[in-house]
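Q&A FORM
Asked by: J.P.
Topic: structure of 3-hydroxy-3-methylglutaryl coenzyme A reductase

PROVIDED:
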Amino acid sequence: MIMKFYQLSRADRLTWLKQAGYLTDESEQRLLAQTPLAEAVLSAMVENSLSEFGLPMGVADHFLIDGHEYFVPMVTEEPSVIAAASNGAKRVAASGGFQTVEVSHLLKAQVIINGVTNQVSLTKRLTDAQSAIETVVIEAHPSLQKRGGGLRQIEINHFADGYSELALWIDPVAAFGANMANTIAEAVGTYIQQALLKKDEQVLAAVLSNSGEKMTVTVTCQVDFTQLATAEFSGQQVALKIAALNHYAALDIDRAATENKGILNGIFAVGLATGNDLRAISAAVTDYLCGANRPVLSTWQLDQHAEVLRGRLTIPLPVGRVGGAINSLPNAQVSLELLQHPSVETLMSIIASVGLANNLAALRALVTNGIQAGHMALQTANLAIQAGATGEEIGWVQQQLNQHQPANLALAQQLLQQFRNRG
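REPLIED BY: S.T.
REPLY: Here is the structure written out as tokens.
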């Protein structure tokens, strides 16, 4: 791991990553050139395409996950997100790194039936037809079976007002699998409507579920007290404050919402960089929190005997490393290259680890110097740009703003004029 990676120029960072084996020559040149998407790709990906919408792409360093080092690609418009991820990861890496506890990657497809008057009878018919349903699944998507995936579990659930559900739990292998789940659900829905349902029973809908119930990952870490200390507070004091603030979030949903947002800063940034569906992640996290015993995603607990702070994050992550936009977006492919072409389970662990790293950095800042100190030092670059600074002007105005707190747009404009008057 190199030191002060953030101080290198963009070109030097790309050169270093290429020489270290994280990027090919082609990917380095693509990122240097910032090649836009081809017209045909744009038109194929969205209706009524106009152009691309650019967001900054960077990497967070210092990540040690299950014994492997990673430079993690992140796409975000907020200056502090990547800095916070690297900050948290560095403290965790010095204490042993992140560990994956458990990963599951099963997608749910639903066949929803209404008009059910005899739940016992419907259950028997569906149960007796399980072998036939399995055959329909295979025939609907034969390539999935060949890749080692397919149907893993069938559930029959009944609800009030004459509704029932046939739940199909599918292993989509390396993909998130939304399209294949829809294809399978529709095929099974057609089969049971024609072969099994009676009288007023009707297939109301056949579609994937975005619950993420069995597409979850749990990661843990420990942080030595020595890695948390500041000039004003001992590491033990900081650890105690972090654990207390996290405990408060478990009691107060308003605080929990903000803490969860900090976790999702990292989760979404890596999800976007790898071409994954942020709406699916949002829906799954919402569903998970509605059913959880606590409103905050993470847990931080003090271990006084070992002199460490222990962190844990369980989160649903409906993601893939192939399919959809992942295959269509060149920079998503570069992101996976940077991550050394991980399995989908490893990708889930990486994304969750970034979320926990962002969480640690935010909590540590909150209980020590406050969140604004770090945020504003990075936000000043945006103020310089908003003031009209370009090229070398941005760096000079940012440096001056960081020395003249509180910074604001009017001050940025004044400093920019000073710089231009000097020329």
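FOLLOW-UP: The first strand starts at residue 57 and ends at 65.
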